[in-house]
Amino acid sequence: MMGRPNTVSELAALQLARPGLDAPESVVAAWYARKARVLEHLAAEGSTAAREQARAALERARRLGVAAWSG
Fold first, then answer.
1. Crossing angle between the packed helical segments 48-64 and 25-44, to the nearest 10 degrees
2. Is the predicted pLDDT of residue 67 greater than 70, yes or no?
3. Residue 18, class by beta-carbon neighbours within 10 Å (0-12 exposed, 13-18 middle, 19+ buried)?
4. Which of 12, 15, 20, 54 is deepest in the core (most CB within 10 A)?
């Protein structure tokens, strides 16, 4: 059974995985979808600002072509 996500670890991994300027849109979109998921985890811990940032990241991912993610 998995425990709750470690948000600090997720944020660090997200930062390290940030796509470069020459990355394909699909890679950037997937990164924004992942960012939204991490921020939603943070929002679930009580951060209103993270909730808003998660919505913005998900919208960016959608505009770039990622509608949803599994997880």
1. 160
2. no
3. exposed
4. 54
* 57's tokens: 């990241």
| Residues ≥6 apart with Cβ < 8 Å to 55 | 36
Domains in the chain: boundaries: 26-71
Classify burial at 31, counting beta carbons within 10 Å of its beta carbon; exposed 0-12, middle 13-18, buried 19 or more.
buried
- Write down the pLDDT at residue 16: 92
Number of H helices, E strands in the chain: 3, 0
> What average pLDDT does the structure give for the chain?
81
Distances (CA, A) of 23 to 20, 26, 55, 62, 67: 5, 8, 22, 17, 19
Kindly state the tokens that stand for 46: 């009580």
